[in-house]
Specification:
Layout lengths: L6 H32 L1 E6 L4 E6 L4 E6 L9 H31 L11
Antiparallel strand pairs: 1-2, 2-3
Amino acid sequence: MAKRGGFPGGMPGNMNNLMKQAQRMQRQMEENQKELETKEFTAKAGGGAVEVTVTGKKEVTKVKLSEEVVDPEDIEMLEDLVMAATNEALRMAEDANAEVMNKMTGGLGLGGGLPF
């Protein structure tokens, strides 16, 4: 007599359910990734003198400079402000990506460096 819940007969149903759940999760992750890629993240530096916008795909789509920050005598400051705003916008995009992954994995840390 086979015991109830034993390997013969119990495992295939559970495996099918696990596969369906994995496929559903993969579809949700793909949908979330597509949605994230369409979002834009804007960060400012220098009190708003420099503004950079990036997409969820981490592509710079806009750089806006205030006239007062454009000083030919101090190009280094402008470069630093553009770099700071760009890095902050990229961090915002990465944080949004991590939040989506955390929701999908329930905080299990399954995203571990995967480019989702």
